[in-house]
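Figure 2 data, in text form.
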Amino acid sequence: MKRRPAVASFFYSGTKQSLLEEIRRCFLSPHGPGELPERPMTSGEPVPVLISPHAGYMYSGPVAAHGYLELSKKKRPKTVVVVGPNHYGIGTDVSLYPGGYWSTPLGDIEIDRELVGRLASSSDIFSLDELSHKEEHSIEVQVPFVQFVFGENIKFVPICMLDQSREAALEVGRALAAVIESPEEFAVIASSDFTHYEPHEEATRRDMAVISRILELDVDGFYSTMKTEYATLCGYGPIAAIIHYSRLKSYTKSKLLKYATSGDTGGDRSSVVGYASISFSR
């Protein structure tokens, strides 16, 4: 079973060489970290939990690169878990991709069927479902960055959340924490963009109010601030899930690695989307 890319040549380059060059440009962009990941990784510190954006690479790629550079400096995990929102409203409430491989122009990445099975057995909230993932870009756009940083022989678990309620997010976070007994062997990533289609200054104001709650690992405050500030995050459920996971696993040192909008990276500040890379570490 192989999931073919849905947004190659649209959100990111569709051939291997052009995609490698595009990712390098993200790292070296004025809005990126300004350096490329080093391999092999030598640090013994566990990788942080990460929030990463998922727009087209020309807009959000430099912001995403800040988070992936942080991952590259730590101990290499055996599996990367990406929790993303369901933009298309198809499939099940919270979906695990059952098995096989996901394909990108950089090659195939294998689904960690053992972890998928353990998660599915740990909570009724999960369904094994391919349909939820068929067109969804929020998880897919993370995969080439994962392959670029970690190379081959890394496994992958995609979790797609149609139900982004507080209750669903807490249960996903709880299940991840219960099943992942050795968190240093797993990189957990929430995929989300921030406020959509507001002027640059207004989007930034709303997003910074929300980010302050995220940095405090405050799930309730995060949901309430989104509501009061009209901050239109698309992946708020995945963010809340990994906040809860981080708390349960004592990843309580939070850091805003980079915030920018599409106005910063694309030039038009009249109607922007906000992007943030945020890490949680021990």
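Caption note: Residues 32 and 62 are 4 Å apart (CA to CA).
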